Amino acid sequence: MAEEKQNQEELNEQEELNETEAETAEAEGVAVEADDRTEENQLLDKQLKELQERLEEKENKLLRVQADFENYKRRARLDLEAAEKYRSQRIIGDLLPALDNFERALQVDPDNEQTKSLLQGMEMVHRQILEALKNEGVEQIPSVGEQFDPNLHQAVMQVEDEAYESNAVVEELQKGYKLKDRVIRPSMVKVNQ
């Protein structure tokens, strides 16, 4: 019986030792598992941060593309408005030399009734042409007596005339025209010094 008791105590000690080892192993396993979870959490946090950065980058890129598209739409609208506003510029530019020649022809002194009648018809046509140009927004640039403006006038000669101020336009050699706010052809002028 004493031997049995001793065997029983040894068994109990062995079980306690086994239980302690199991608890230690379990604690180490939990610690390893906790370390694994911490590493996994760190990895997930890192991935989350990278994804957030990529998302922010994509959002910024999208905003830039939207802004570029809005700018493109605005430029296209402005180009279309300008094209509509100045649609007749080319044909008006082509008509101006013919209009100059027409005005020179009107300056002829009639010597008989037939020439006077022809000039009256030409003057009516001239007024109609000017009216049509005016309806399109064409204006003659005022010159004589005005101060010289390099945006509106092209100085081809300088003279000294005390009747005019310094830098004033003395004579218009060729009429200048504007279409709305754009100069089609500057006036060729003589300018006082």
TrEMBL record:
Q: Which Gene3D superfamilies match?
A: 3.90.20.20, Head domain of nucleotide exchange factor GrpE (2.30.22.10)
Q: Does the keyword Transmembrane helix apply?
A: no
Gene Ontology terms, cellular component aspect?
Answer: cytoplasm
Q: Which InterPro entries match?
A: GrpE, GrpE_CC, GrpE_head
What processes does the entry annotate via GO biological process terms? protein folding
Q: Which UniProt keywords apply?
A: Chaperone, Cytoplasm, Stress response
Name the segments for region: Disordered: 1-45
Q: Where in the cell is it found?
A: Cytoplasm
Question: Where in the sequence does UniProt note compositional bias of the Acidic residues kind?
Answer: 10-26
SUPFAM superfamilies the UniProt entry points to: Coiled-coil domain of nucleotide exchange factor GrpE, Head domain of nucleotide exchange factor GrpE
* HAMAP family in the cross-refs: GrpE (MF_01151)
- Function text: Participates actively in the response to hyperosmotic and heat shock by preventing the aggregation of stress-denatured proteins, in association with DnaK and GrpE. It is the nucleotide exchange factor for DnaK and may function as a thermosensor. Unfolded proteins bind initially to DnaJ; upon interaction with the DnaJ-bound protein, DnaK hydrolyzes its bound ATP, resulting in the formation of a stable complex. GrpE releases ADP from DnaK; ATP binding to DnaK triggers the release of the substrate protein, thus completing the reaction cycle.
> How is this protein named in the record?
Protein GrpE
What does UniProt list as this organism's lineage? Bacteria, Bacillati, Bacillota, Bacilli, Bacillales
